[in-house]
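Lab channel / #folding
Pinned by the channel admin:
"Please post every new chain as: sequence first, then the structure tokens as a reply. Keep commentary short and put observations after the output so the thread stays searchable."

First post following the new format, from NK:
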Amino acid sequence: MDDLMTFLAMGGYGVYVWPAYGLTALAFVGMLGWTVVTLKARRREEQGLAAAGRIRRGRREAES
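Reply from TO:
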């Protein structure tokens, strides 16, 4: 247990190192979340455009 405490203390710099790791991990999770949300929105937009294209294509074919 003492070895673990020594490791976590990191020679007295653990107070600075661990929050930096935490903020970095938080930033990565935030970027991942933002990417997933944006991807879902773009897929919905693509599906909407594809559906609108099919409707327009169908009207043109009916008019021809």
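NK: Residues 25-64 form one domain.
TO: also worth noting, Residues 14-63 form the longest helix (50 residues).
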